[in-house]
Each structure stands twice: as C-alpha cells, then as structure tokens.
Design a protein that fits this description.
2 copies of one chain form a homodimer. With 340 residues, chain A is of the alpha+beta class. Helix content of chain A is 47%, strand content 17%. The first copy, chain A, contains 12 helices and 10 strands. In chain A, helix 1 packs across helix 4 and helix 6 runs antiparallel to helix 12. The first copy, chain A, is elongated and about 90 Å long. Chains A and B meet through strand 4, strand 5, strand 6 and helix 10 of A and strand 4, strand 5, strand 6 and helix 10 of B. The structure holds a DNA duplex (30 and 30 nucleotides).
Chain lengths: 340, 340
DNA sequence: ACTGGCACTCGACTTACGGGAGTGCCAAAG
DNA sequence: CTTTGGCACTCCCGTAAGTCGAGTGCCAGT
C-alpha cells in the first residue's frame, strides 16, 4: 500500500514527538499536538499501516508507537525540513574557530565545537595525507646514524618519523639528500608519491643508495601506510544524556567502538564530495553501533575534500538540526583551511 | 582505640573480598574465606570498631561491610602486599612496546597497554616540554610572510607552529634566523629558554629585529604556554565494567572530567621523583572524580622524569595489582626513551 | 578476650491489584 | 471508500503486602 500524504505527515509527527519527548507517542497525543485535522481513530488506522510497512513499531501492545530505523530513514530522506542555523549559532561557530593558531588547534576546536553544538559525540579527521600535497621535507640529524624526517603538508599537517641509517652520514650527505628529496617530492600529491620515491633511490649514486633506500622506506611508510590515521574525538559524556534509554541500556559497545580509530575513520572518512551522509542504526556496518546513528560529511578548502567530520548519537536524534550543524561547521572549517 | 593486628587483618580481608566480589562482605563469609582463626562473632566485634574508626561502613543496617575511602587508604599504605608481575605480563609489556617507531607510537601503545592490563582508563602524558631540552629548531618558509616553526625536543617530541611575519623575508634571512636560533637554544632546557629568547631579540640587528621579535613571541608561546598540553587516553569502555554500581550510578561526571585535558594533566602530571601516587575517592580535588581513584607515577629515561602516566578507576579497584602494573609500564617506557 | 545463641532489622524478591494510556475492531455516518 | 465515535481488551506501571534470608548487635557463658 502506498503511503498518502497524511500518513507521511503522521510519521513525521511521530518522529518529531518521539525525538522531543523520548516517549512512545499515542494517537490521542498526536492529534492534540499537531494540526492533523482528523480524529485519533483515523490516526490509529494510519499508524496500523505505517507499522505494517515497517516504519514504526510498538514497544509493547498497548503502548504508543516508536519510529524504526526505516522510519527515521524515510523521515530524513523525504520529510525533514532543513533547519537554518540561528545567527547566534553562526556567530558561535565563527568566534570559536577564529582563534585557532595551527592545524592541531583547528581540529581540536572544531571537534569540541561540534560536540557542544550537537550535544553528541563529535569526530574530526585530520586532513588526510593521501589527499594533500607535500610542502616541504626536512631532515634533522639526531646522531650520525639517525635522522628525524619531518614532513609538512599543504594542509598544515606535520608528520615526523625517526630514520635509522645503515651507516654514518655527515652533514653534507644529509643536506644533499634533503635537497634531492625536496626537489623530487615538493608540491606533489602524496597519492602520487610512491613511484617518485622509488625513482629517488634509482637515481641515487651507488655509494649512497643504501642510505637513500633506508630513508625511502620510512618515507613510504609515513606517506602511505599511516596516512589517514589521525583524528580527534570529543563529547563522549554526551552519550549519557537521555539516561540509559538510548543505546539499549549499555554504553559499553559504543565506547568500545569509539576507541578504535579504524572504526571511526570508516565512519567519517568515506566521504563523497559535498554530500552529508546519514547512517541510521542498522545501516551501520559496525555491530557495536547498531543502536547509533552517524551524520558525517567531508570538509576542505573550496570544493576539494581533505578529510571528514561528523557526529554520533542515538538513533533517536534531531536529524535536521544535526545535519545543519555538521554541514555548517564543515563549511567554516573549509574556509579556515582555504585561508592558509 | 588502636587497631591491633587482627583488626588490620580483618580490614585487609574485607577490602580484598569486596574488590573481588563487588558485594558487601559479612562476618560469616569472611571467616570462611580467610584463615582468621576466630569466630564470626569476634570478627563482628572487630568490624564494629573498624566502623567506629571510619574504615568501613554499612550500606544499610543489616548488610555486610564495605570499605570507606579511609579504609582503602589504610589498606594501600600498610596492608597491601606488592604483587610481582607474572612473566607473561612482563613479556606482554615488552612485546607490545618493542615495535614502536616514534614517540607518538610509543605513547599510543603505552596508553593502550595500560588500559588493557589494568582494565581501567589509562592516561599517558607526552614528555613534558618544560622538562626537555631543545634538540633542533627548523624554520620552513611557507610563503614570503609565513614560516613554519618546527621544534624537536630530545625526548623525540615535535611541535610546530605557524609564524606570521610582519614583512617579507627572503631565503637568506630565514637561514640566518635559523642559525641564530639554533646557536642560542639548541641543547638548552626549555625551562631556561625565555631569557635566551629575549636575548636573541636584543642581539639582533635593528632592521631585522621586528621579524625576530615576531618569531620570538611564537617561540615563547610554543615553548612555555602550551608546553605540557598533550596527552593520550584509552580504555574509557572499561568504565562500564561492574555495571552501574561503580561511580554511584552515573558515568557522566567521570566522562566529563576525562574530556578536560587540564584536569587529566593535574591528575597525572604532578609527579614527584620515583613515587607512585594513589588518590582515593575523596582525596581527589576534582569533584567529578570523588567516586574514582587514580594511580599515577612519573616516567623518563634513567632516573629523570619527563612525564606522568597513570590509570583511573572505581575506588573499588585492585590497588596492589594496579600499582604494580603502572610502575612496571612506567619503567619500560623510561627504558625505551633512554634508548633514543 | 573469645564464643555461641538469639532476637531484630531491613533490603531483595515475589505476588496481588487497581489505574490508565493506548490499541484494534466494528458499525454507523459522511 | 474514508472517517468517526464507541467499546472491550491488553499490558505497563506504581503501590501495597508478605516472605525470605543474610547480617547485625548484644549478652551471658566459658
């Protein structure tokens, strides 16, 4: 049976009321709080249909209705009116992000801001190296057989690694390598780096090839393997809002999932351009997050995307508000990055 | 009334049983599980005294006894026998830390290891800059009026900050400043840096003084103000072990406290040499942590201390085991740092 | 000083019982 | 065919009452 307009309106009302009150909503309460223009009995009939179609369910016989994951999905896709941010919120975002002094600071401020505005758990991925370019590579001698490799990306990200050399290298050797490495890699996108690094080794004079190979392997590790690893998290305390009701009584699995960087990156890292992605309950591949929803989007200077950010909360969340906030914050962060 | 040996023994038994079972312990159960050589009635008398002295209390009349914060304190100070780590644990620590490739990696591995071994929340402070020396300072031109300042400390820590110059500077200027800065600061302890930085500005030729002053102010900010800021956290999911019983029913305040870096630094950062510090319940100055205990210690290469680490859990925790683990991990991390 | 005995307390768990919100169904009206 | 009022039914929730048992405090006796 197709859903006519009124049934959709009923679903929207149920979602909005349930999100607001956290209590199963009944037919009588619905007609009182919304101008549906029909009687409770009619609403009950509609509800029966909605339930049959899998959009709502009853916790027990003779309780009100609660949206299912499918119900939230329909709501998000077709029923939610986008909320504009209040000027106060806009100002808060601007003010909060304005004082940032470096990338670390930007990320930390962003994640706190997101957590505060949405009152949920916020996650911000550092600008992904694979989407950045090399601005500069620096080699700092630590001892005769040890170098510190420092890479600065155009996004402001800085990565460092220790390099153990096979044999001693003097200052000139180091300067030489530094020049070569920069000549070859500066300005290049990291995704394109591996063949260039290989070329570096091949072009190197035989007596220094060993040393260069050593540096190259660390370079590859840094640039490729650990590339997307970093992220920031805030607002875990918000999980305890709404009592033990959300997350089916146990925060355990959620907290466990939040500890796994790999999982978080999967959640917010897979971003298509200019889309806000909403994963509701069961749609999450991670079993531990079957009772949670994730709203995520990409950010970056201009229209390019260098990383993802998002929030995680109970399936019973204010989707329109959250989506609006996540988008707005992402845009401000992108603007901020564009300035550098 | 002074506590004779048997009363102390009773207290120890109560603490051990309560920690193990999480249930108030009664006189009968006590004599059954421990070889006290006396009857339940006698134990009851002892318990009455212990309660009067404030070391134990009854959740309700006619329930068993539970240690108070003061009881745990006495237990930790005088009654706990230090547990030696099992060879398996030692091996686990060694294996887990062995693969670390840089400081970030060491810290992350350490904090996860601690959380896993103690099954509690672990916190590890990055080596404090104020206790480190400058190994090298690098200036990387980003644009004509922008520099990236990278500082490498002897502990392996790397900090970077963006410097906005008052006017354009060419490559030679930058190299020049870099030389001066390194000549003045390399090898110096960061705590001693401020006057040296000031001297740099004073000694500078007038036409470049403006630029140098700008760099100097960022240097001071980096070296001093934000000096001890970084730390890593793991194991928050462990807070949910033991049901809602620990932390008087609400994780909220604890999670909130864990979000505040300032608070965490206060907890594990104030370390006296070679002491393991235990703060039990009320002894914590942070109100949100009145239901928690913190075990912390310093770590560093050799006998010097460069940072703190520790764990946080319910007052009802296995103090001897936790203390042993925290100490052991701190020692291994220190050894690891000494190798670099 | 320790012990056995005993009355007492009080929380935890069960059972019983209305009250009430909400439903599903049906017959009548539009 | 849709909507509506009526009505019986279901089942959660809060309260009250009753039982059970672990644990205590006290006391008299060794």
């Amino acid at each position: 049976m197709p859903l006519d307009d009124r049934k959709l309106e009923v679903l929207r009302a149920i979602v909005e009321d349930y999100v607001a009150t956290q209590e199963p909503v009944g037919s009588k309460a619905l007609v009182e709080r919304h101008q549906l223009g029909v009687s409770p009995a009619t609403v009950r009939n509609d509800m029966a249909v909605l339930e049959e179609e899998g959009y709502i369910r009853q916790p027990h016989t003779s309780a009100g209705r609660v949206p299912t994951d499918a119900g939230y999905r329909l709501f998000v896709d077709r029923l939610s009116r986008i909320k504009a941010l209040s000027p106060a919120e806009r100002r808060a975002i601007e003010r909060f992000l304005a004082g940032a002094v470096d990338l670390d600071d930007v990320v930390h401020r962003t994640v706190r801001l997101l957590a505060q505005l949405t009152r949920q758990v916020a996650v911000v991925q550092y600008p992904s190296l694979s989407r950045s370019s090399v601005r500069h590579l620096e080699l700092v001698p630590i001892s005769t057989t040890r170098l510190m490799l420092v890479m600065i990306a155009d996004t402001g990200r800085v990565e460092q690694r220790l390099v153990e050399l096979p044999g001693p290298a003097d200052t000139d050797d180091v300067l030489d390598m530094r020049r070569q490495v920069n000549a070859k890699l500066a300005g290049e996108r990291l995704a394109d780096a591996p063949p260039l690094v290989q070329a570096l080794v091949d072009e190197c004079s035989p007596e220094k090839r060993n040393t260069m190979a050593c540096l190259a392997s660390v370079l590859l590790e840094t640039l490729v393997e650990r590339s997307d690893e970093r992220l920031a998290l805030a607002g875990t305390a918000n999980l305890t809002r709404g009592g033990v009701l959300d997350f089916q009584g146990s925060l355990r699995p959620v907290l466990e999932a939040l500890e796994e960087e790999v999982i978080l990156l999967k959640l917010i890292g897979e971003v298509e351009p200019s889309t806000t992605r909403v994963r509701i309950g069961d749609e999450n591949e991670i079993d531990n997050l079957r009772a949670a929803s994730v709203v995520s989007t990409g950010y970056g200077p201009g229209t390019t995307i260098v990383g993802g950010l998002g929030v995680l909360g109970p399936t019973r969340m204010d989707y329109p508000g959250t989506i609006a906030t996540v988008r707005a914050v992402a845009r401000y962060v992108g603007d901020l990055l564009a300035q550098n």
